[in-house]
Amino acid sequence: MTSSPAPEPPAQRFVRRLAELKVPDPAAARAALWLRLGGLLMAAGLLLGAVAFPLAHGTDNSLAQGDALAIGLGGITAAVVGAALFLRYSLTGFLRFWLARQSYDLELLGERLARTPANAPQPEGDQRNGAPRTDPAPR
98, 91 in Cβ contact below 8 A? Predict the structure, then answer.
């Protein structure tokens, strides 16, 4: 008697297929570096803005105020760029997980639909949004 190999569980099959796709690891070092850089730029931007305000208001010299305003604008720019980097790389990890989860759910749905016999009885009425059809059938 020959025994057939045990069927592979869907979760393990999904992990194997994901490895075949060579999807980069969401915890890769480069992504983590950009994420940290975005956080540092946001913090540096806030710090520069906090430093520039008293510098600009603490003197009557217009040249010193101009320098403080330039520092403040640089801080705002750093904070905006840092926030964009931080959001981009933090959402990338989440969306990659979401896409993998969607793929897995669709595969399970396809397997379930493939197991359903073609001549299985269908529910009566039009099942739109789960509500049964109440109006008479069109003639």
Answer: no
